[in-house]
Amino acid sequence: MGAEIVGAAGTSSNAARADARSERRGGLARRERGLGRRGWVARRSGARARETTTRTRAFEGKDAAEVGRAFEPKYVRKPVPVYVMLPLNVVTNDGEVNDPEALERGLRALSEIGVEGVMIDVWWGIVERDGPRKYDWAAYREVMDMIKDAGLKVQAVMSFHACGANVGDVVEIPLPDWVLEAGKKDPDLFFTDQYGYRNPECISLWADNAATLAGRTPLNTYKDFMISFRNTFKAELGTTLTEIAVGCGPCGELRYPAYPENRFAQKASQWRFPGIGEFQCYDQRSLLSLSRAASEAGHIEWGGSGPHDTGGYNNLPFETGFFRYDGGSWDSEYGSFFLSWYSSELVNHGDRMLEMTKRVFDRRGVTLAIKCAGVHWWYNVRSHAAELTAGYFNTRAGEFVPERDGYAPIVRVCKKHGARLNFTCVEMHDSDHPWYCYCGPEGLLRQIRSACARFDVPFAGENALCRFDQAAYDKIIKNCAGEGNDEEMWREGTMVPPMACFTFLRFNAELFSPFAFESFRVFVQRMRDETGLIDTSIGDTSDEEASTEDVEEISSESRVQLGL
Q1: Which is catalytic among the residues 427, 462, 483, 530?
Q2: Annotated catalytic residue 462
Q3: Catalytic residue (one of 253, 345, 427, 442)
Q4: I need a labelling partner for 240 at 20 to 30 A (CA). Which of 223, 378, 430, 434 fits?
Q5: Distance, CA of 163 to chain centre
Q6: Is 110 helix (H, G, I), strand (E, B) or coil?
Q7: At what angle do helices 514-530 and 470-481 cross, to 10 degrees?
Q8: Is the pLDDT of residue 69 over 90?
C-alpha cells in the first residue's frame, strides 16, 4: 500500500508536489521539540508573519527547480552510523586471513551501500600465541589494509578472552598456550565457581596485579599487547581506526563468567537459558578480598565464602533461598554486603582497564569503549537474579535493600575516562522470549541508556542475535533514533538521546545472500533517513548554515515509515 501511495505521488505536477511538501513541512514545524520515534524537528525563525515574508522574498525571481531544491532536507544532526561485526575467525588460529577474496568482496559491498565501518576482534590468543611478547600482526595488517582500501572505518576490540564458551561462539579461539600453562601452575589465575570449576575463558579480575604471566601481571601484559598494537597501526589511528574497545571479561564484556555455555570442559556443570547462573568468587584471591571486606564491615563470619543458598547454574530464582522474590537472602543486610562487594570489584576492574587503555591511546584520536552484557532474563522480578551473578547489583526495592541502579557505577567510570558504553539487545522485544523467564530487554536497554544520558556518556548499540527480519530492523531504527530533541530531558533521563553508532551482528554468508543483503541495504538506507535530525524549515537559499549538510532524496521505504 505504501508503494502505491509513493507511485501516485509521482504522477502529480511539480506545483502540486511543492504545495504538498510546504503544507507537510509547515505542519512539522508547528510540532513541539520532542517528536518521539521519528526524530524529526522543524525550526522556526520568528513569528509566522515574518516567516511568510521571508519565504516570499527568498523565492522571488527563481525558477521551479531552485524552489524545489530549497525544500530538500538538510541534516542538523547526522544519522546514526552503521558498522558490521566481522567474523570471529576473520584471522585463523594460525595467524592467516580467512578467505581474503570473500572478505574483500564483502567489505566493498558494505561500503557501496553506505555502511560506515566494521568491528574486528583482535584476539590475544592469536596475536601472542607463540610466547610472551612475541606478537604476530601480519594477518591483521592485511585485513586493516583491505578495510582501508574499501573506505571503511574500524572499531577494534582488544579481545583478552577466549572464544567458544558463549552464545553465538561458532569457533574456538583459546587463550595463548603459555597463559594456560601459567594457569596450571597457579589455578587461581582463573574465575572459580562453588564447585571448584576454573573457567579458562578469561583471567580473574582478582589476579589483575599478580605477577604470574612470565613475570608480568595481567594488567602489564594487556598494556604491552595494546602498545604493540598502537605502534603497528599508528598510521591508521584517528583516521581508519576510530575506536578501541577494551575487553574486560568473558565475551569482551565487563561481567563475571556467570553463565558459560562451555565447550572447553564438556563435563562441567554449565549454564542453559534461562538459568540464574552462579557467583564466580571461589578462587583464593577472591576469598581473601571477601574476607577483608567482611572484616572491615564488622562481620568476619561473612568472609568465609559466597552465599550458601544460591542454587546452581540452571536453577530458577524461586527455587533458591537467596534469589526468591520475597524473603530472599539478597534482601538482607548480608545480601546487601555481599552484592555490594561483588559488584564493586567488577566496577573497579573496569576502572583499571580503562585507565590503562587511556594511557596507551591518549591523544591518538580514537574513542575508547567498554561493553556491558545484556542479561535480560529475570529482569522483571525483584531480585534480578541473573544480573546479580553476572556482577550487576541491579534490584527493585525490597524490605531491606533499596532499589538499585546496578549500571550507574559503570557509566560513571566511562564518564571518568571519556569512554563510550557499548550494549546489546537493541533489536529485542520483551515478547520475543517465553513469559515464564520474565525477560525485560526493552526495560533494561532503556535503563542503561537513561543512565548514560544522565552522565552524558555516549551510548553505542548492537543486536544480540543475527536477524534479518523486518520487526528486528524496525526496533533497531526506533531505538537508534532516540526520543525528541530536548537535551534537558535527556540529562534528566526521562527521554533518551540518539545512539552514537550501531554495530550489526554479523558479517557472514547469510548476510550476503540475495534476500538478506537487499533487506540489509534497505535497513542501512532507513538508518540514514530516519535517525538523523532533519531541518525541514524553509529559509533563504542563499544563506545556508555551515553546520548543515545536504542529504540525498529520502528513500521510498523511509517515506512509508515516516508517513510522508
Answers
A1: 462
A2: yes
A3: 253
A4: 223
A5: 18
A6: helix
A7: 20
A8: no
The pLDDT, as a whole number, for residue 491 is: 86
Tens-digit pLDDT profile for residues 243-269:
999 999 999 999 999 999 865 555 455
Return the domain boundaries, the chain.
Answer: 2-75+536-562, 79-531
Q: Are 426 and 502 in contact (CB under 8 A)?
A: yes
Closest residue by Cα to residue 195 from 251, 260, 250: 260
Q: Are 281 and 237 in contact (CB under 8 A)?
A: no
On whether the CB atoms of residues 528 and 556 are closer than 8 A, the answer is no
Contacts 24+ apart (CB under 8 A), 441-449: 441/374, 441/376, 441/379, 443/379, 443/380, 444/374, 444/375, 444/376, 444/379, 445/374, 445/479, 446/496, 447/394, 447/405, 447/407, 448/372, 448/407, 448/411, 448/421, 448/423, 449/423, 449/496
Give tens-digit pLDDT for 80-106: 999 999 999 999 999 999 999 999 999
- Tell how far CA 136 is from the center of its chain: 28
C-alpha cell at 366: 580514537
Whose grid coordinates read 572464544? 163
**Cell numbers describing residue 472:** 528486528
Assigned superfamily of 79-531: Glycosidases (3.20.20.80)
Q: How far apart are CA 153 and CA 140, in angstroms?
A: 14
Cβ-contact 29, 523 below 8 angstroms: no
The amino acid sitting at 554 is I
At residue 47, the pLDDT reads 37
Given the C-alpha cell 525477560, which residue does it identify? 439
Strand partners, 122: 158
The DSSP secondary structure of 398-448, one letter per residue, reads -SSSPP--TTHHHHHHHHHHTEEEEE--TT--GGGS-GGGT--HHHHHHHH
Distances (CA, A) of 408 to 393, 417, 454: 10, 14, 9
Q: Is 229 exposed, middle or buried (0-12, 13-18, 19+ CB in 10 A)?
A: buried
